[in-house]
């Protein structure tokens, strides 16, 4: 988070665009909840020396209650939008669930690499599951 206003200053003209809130946030000034999908008139631009594949690196919106600026940085590399200043991100259960599923899948793959019997057990479990659309007589 940069406190130097020139570090965040747009290089070239800022583009006005309609944007939607990427996740649930809470304004630090007035504590207003801003829900995911809320539509805003935003200013998009780039930060000096921070460009990824030529995409705009930040988006500035204003709080719907107190008009304080809230700045998001786009992070296409990690498919995320970290809040730079003006708001805090609320808890996201979906993201934690996805990370947990990835971790469990990775553990299972590592276990299969180290234990050939586990591969056979997993295949048997897959064969025992009913096929969708097939009738059992």
Automatic annotation (TrEMBL):
GO BP: mRNA splicing, via spliceosome
Residues annotated as transmembrane: none
Highest rank taxon of the organism: Eukaryota
A Pfam family assignment: Saf4_Yju2
GO terms under cellular component: U2-type catalytic step 1 spliceosome
Protein name in the entry: Splicing factor YJU2
């Amino acid at each position: 988070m940069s406190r130097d206003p020139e570090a965040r200053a747009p290089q070239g003209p800022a583009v006005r665009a309609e944007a939607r809130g990427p996740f649930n946030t809470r304004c630090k000034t007035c504590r207003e909840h801003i829900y995911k999908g809320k539509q805003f008139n935003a200013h998009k631009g780039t930060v000096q020396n921070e460009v990824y594949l030529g995409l705009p690196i930040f988006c500035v919106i204003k709080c719907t209650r107190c008009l304080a600026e809230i700045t998001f940085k786009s992070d296409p590399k990690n498919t995320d939008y970290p809040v730079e200043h003006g708001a805090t991100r609320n808890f996201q259960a979906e993201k934690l669930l996805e990370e947990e599923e990835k971790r469990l899948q990775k553990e299972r793959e590592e276990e299969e690499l180290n234990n050939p019997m586990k591969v056979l057990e997993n295949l048997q479990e897959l064969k025992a599951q009913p096929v969708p659309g097939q009738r059992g007589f």
